[in-house]
Amino acid sequence: MIIKKPKIELDSFNDTQNLDVKYGLNKEIKYCKKCLMSNQRPNMCPEHLHTIDTQKATIKFNDDYCDACKLTDNKKDVDWDKRDFELRKLLEKYRSKDGSYDVLVPGSGGKDSFYVAHKLKYEYGMHPLTCTFAPNIPTEWGKHNFYNWINAGFANYLFNCDNLIHRFITRLSIETLLHPFQPWILGQKNFPTKFAAKLKIPLIIYGENPAEYGNPNEKYYDDMLMEWFACDDLSKISIAGIPIRKLRYDYSLKENELDPYIPLTFDQFKKADLKCVAFSYFENWHPQKNYYYTVKNSDFKPSPERTLGTYSKYASIDDKIDDLHFYTTKVKFGIGRTHYDVAQEIRSGDLTTQEGKSLINKYDGEYPDRFLTEILQYLSINKDEFPQKYKFFEEPVINQDYFDDLCDSFRSPHIWKKTNLGWVPRKSINDES
Length: 433
Ligand SMILES: [Zn+2]
Prior knowledge:
The protein has 15 helices and 13 strands. By secondary structure, it is α/β, with parallel strands linked by helices.
C-alpha cells in the first residue's frame, strides 16, 4: 500500500460546460449577501467517518442569506435571562457538594476555553477541570497562553500522543484528504469524552456550538450532537481517511497507536451518561468579547504578529499547522482563513460587509510560507526517524514542490481555473452584485 506522488490532471480544468465538482459541493458558487460566507462551506460532520468519497453536506442558503446569518437574526428574539436561568439549573444539577471536579472544559487556553472555564469557576461556582489535546507544533505564544490558563487557577490534563505516530498519521491525512489538521481534530474531539467517562465527570462544557457557524439548525439545542463524539460500530471508522483495518494491517499500526483517534461507542457514551453542551447556547456569544475578558482577567497575549492568511492576532493561534490547515480549505473549498474570520465578525457586528470584502481580497489564501520549512520537516517520513514507515511512501520527504502538487491535485475544477497568473477562482466575492 504505497502512497504515490500526487498527480494532477490539468485537462479537467479546461473551460467546458461540465466542470467536475469534487466532494459533493454545490455546482453553482454563491456568497451570502450579508456575511459573505460561501455555499461551498462544509458542515461539521463526524470526522471519524470522513473519507475521500464523503459527499459533503454544505451550509444552507435561504435565498441570498446563509444559515449562520439566519441564526444571528433569530438570536434577536432570544430571552437571554431565561437562557442564563437554564444554565444555572443545569449547573445546579451537576455541581459537586464536596468541591470535587464537576465539569470538564476542553481547550488550549485560547480566549474561548479560558472564558468558559473562568466564568464557570468564578461566576457560577463550579469546580472545573480543564483538559487539552496537545497541538501538533505549538507556537511560543500558544504555550504562553496555555500556562496562563493554568496560572489563572485551573488544573489541567494535557495529553500528548506518540509524536512519531502522530506525524505519520498527519502525513497520511494530508495525502489522502489534504487535511493536515484531521488527526488533531479527532484527538481533540475524542480525548475529552473518553477522559470524562474514565474520571466519571459526566458534564463537558465547550465554547462554541458549530451551529454558530450555520450547521443545520432547524432546532438549536444546548446539547452537542452525540454523533460528533461517538460511533455505532468501531470497525466502520476511518482515521486520516483510511479504514481502521487497513491502518492495522497495511500500515502496521497498533491498538495503542490508534487509540487517541478512536471515539467512544454510542453504548459507552450513554453508559457514562455524558452531557456535552456548548456555552455559546446560554449567552449572546461574541468571540471578540471573550478576548477582552481573557486579557482583562489574565496575562493572555495575542500573537506578536498578524496571523498568516488573515488579519487577526488572537484567535486560534496555538498551532503552527493552522497556517497550512486554512490554506488547504482555500484549495479545497475556495474559503481561506480571512473568509471564515470575516464572516463571523460581520455577523457579530464587528465589521461591515464592505470591510469584509476588502480584507478577503487582501489576505485570503495567502501562501503558508511562515512556518513551511518546519511543517514540511514535520510531515516528512525520513529513514532515520521512521525505519519501518518510510517505505510506505514513493517520496517520503516532502518539499515545497511536492506540497504544491499535492494541493493542486485536490483542487476542484468548478472552483479553480489555471491562467498565466496561476490559479484563479472562477467566481470570487467581487463578482457578486
Ligand atoms: Zn451569512
